[in-house]
Amino acid sequence: xxHIGIDLGxxxxxxxxxxxxxxELINNSLGSPLTPSVVSVDNGTLLCGDMAKSRLxxxxxxxxxxxxxxxxxxxxxxxGKNNFLSEEFSPEELSAVILxxxxxxxxxxxxxxxxxxVISVPAYFNQLQRRSVQAAAKMAGLNPLRLINEPTAAxxxxxxxDKDAESTFLVFDLGGGTFDVSVLEVFDxxxxxxxxxxxxxxGGEDFTEKLAADLAAExxxxxGEPDPSVLRKLAEQAKCGLSDKHEVTLNATINKxxxxxxxxxxxxxxxxxxxxxxxxxxVERCLYxxxxxxxxxxxxxxxxxxxxxxxxxxxxxxxxxxxxxxxxDPDHVVALGAAVQAGLVGKNAALDDVVMTDVSAFTLGMExxxxxxxxxxxxxxxxxxxxxxxxxxxREIGASTGQIGQTRVTIRIYQGEAPTVKSNxxxxxxxxxxxxxxxxxxxxxxxxxxxxxxxxxVDVTILSTGITKSMTITALAGEISQEDIEKTRKTLERLKxxxxxxxxxxxxxxxxxxxxxxxxxxxxxxxxxxxxxxxTVIESQVPADIERLRGEIGDILNNFESSYxx
Length: 566
Ligand code: AMP
Prior knowledge:
The protein is of the alpha+beta class. The chain is 36% helix and 30% strand. It folds into three domains: 4-202 and 276-359, ATPase, nucleotide binding domain (Nucleotidyltransferase, domain 5, 2-Layer Sandwich); 364-495, Sandwich (Substrate Binding Domain Of DNAk, Chain A, domain 1), CATH 2.60.34.10; 501-563.
């Protein structure tokens, strides 16, 4: 059976397989291992990946991106009428469309059905977000064998390369939408996560937004209010351009007027000062929780596309007094590690001497009451499993009923680091009947069990009767029912998301349209002509002609795309 690992990213998603030669990325039908995490509706058909991405500017109202940032919330993305039936998509449904496409790519590559998979999640994803990823996988017809924390996956990829060395490393993972830091120790093939910290709402996209806000004022002054999707695209291109160059010149047509400006690294960095400050805290906390100082760290590993920004590398080097490493492409390293974990779960012989342990990122506990000034006051948080405890873990605490004679007790479970529950995340609750006891309080025990995927089970036992009631935290606010998962799975199964043989043509047309939207007025005629020419050759249905023209136009578009940012 194939050992499959998936990186379901904010901006790009990847799928990899563990082979006898180690982990290996699988390309999509366009020949790339990166499938943009974008879904679009075109004439009622669902598109995903590159074809959907090329519609972000021209069909922004029909296209959804960055939905990983909304996992675990009830946000809906309205994409218009389509063959999926509903016009509105949950972040889980959009993720399921991407996962289905990755699954199809892996099946085409491996020549067998792919069901079991290890899926990576930001270490800082909470219970709700983890459950959402599991639900999305099931909707896509996958069995999420296990969830692996992204920095842990990255460390597995690096650790495997150098598994006999003894070292302590810090993984700095800044993706499109999330930030994770983990400290790990590696010795004799054993990889142990010591601590993890992060921010589930901070990523490269926030840097794009800061630059966009900075550019918006200048554009508005010169040529009027820009279209938000064009503005975002320009900011994204400038951000990536500034990773290679000291300054970039932006050229675009906005409100039918040519606009040009120059952005320097200094200007970009000044716009992002607040974000840079936010990145320092989790690093400090992770070191503190691991009981280590900066000098104890031997290696610093960079993961996630956003670590390509020079200001991030400088920040890391300054804070950790070490040059960060990134020998393995930061876009690939998580998917490769997820495949290694799949190999470990599947007991692949090549990994016999490798052991990996991970920790929980959050403190888990229950609501408790305290006697304050003679009366019972609820709303306090009682920790049961402290953050950064090695998983799997099971811990129990004793409690008793609040009132003598009460016949029901409700245990509310929370996650977080605040002393009161109102500042923590509510996970769910469990209500149990207790025998009426007029003499004294009834005693109960509450056991929390945290599994290797970071998912939680709760058992409540009434000591006088020995009766235990259990629940997996599924009664969550916003939890998707098994029924709904099954319904979406069946719909997606029936649905041809997009005809794979037309991928390349559709993608090229999307690119022409996107260039047209961004191009200077003088260039638009040429782009229009390319579109006519290409549509004409498609009509001819001669594959060799289509392929030749696709190559020629692709080269011309490369030139156009690089001319927006010089
Ligand atoms: P990931 O979630 O790891 O795929 O990271 C995606 C994030 O990395 C997005 O915010 C991208 O804009 C950002 N990114 C990708 N390439 C670059 C680059 N060359 N310079 C700066 N940011 C980049």
